[in-house]
Design brief:
This protein has two domains: 27 residues, no CATH class; 64 residues, no CATH class. The protein is 55% helix and 0% strand. It has five helices and no strands. The longest helix is centred in the middle third of the chain and has 14 residues. This is Tc1-like transposase DDE domain-containing protein.
Length: 101
């Protein structure tokens, strides 16, 4: 799946996917509404933002991101994955427009 961005439809990408037998899914341009990783990035960012003291260097940020990633609640991840049916249903209902998720 991709979000129809120009870089995702470059001939070299198409050729590679085809050579590997990877089929593309049709996907709306509002795919962040459907992509659970976007919610995880948000949760990760919020967790790092709440740290005190905040990361002061790139290395501190890298460590903070890794630590917070390990601490993410697996129940939240499971919920995001199981919510895909609802997300897709809502997206179809609004014909691909933004969904309030």
């Amino acid at each position: 799946m991709d979000d129809n961005a120009r870089t995702h439809s470059a001939a070299i990408v198409d050729d590679f996917l085809e050579s590997e037998g990877i089929a593309r899914m049709e996907w709306t341009t509002y795919s962040p509404d459907l992509n659970p990783i976007e919610n995880l990035w948000d949760a990760l960012g919020r967790a790092v933002y709440r740290r005190f003291p905040p990361p002061a260097t790139l290395r501190d940020l890298e460590i903070a991101l890794q630590e917070e990633w390990r601490l993410l609640d697996s129940a939240a991840v499971d919920h995001l994955l199981t919510s895909m049916i609802t997300r897709c249903t809502l997206c179809m209902k609004v014909k691909g427009a933004h969904i309030p998720y």
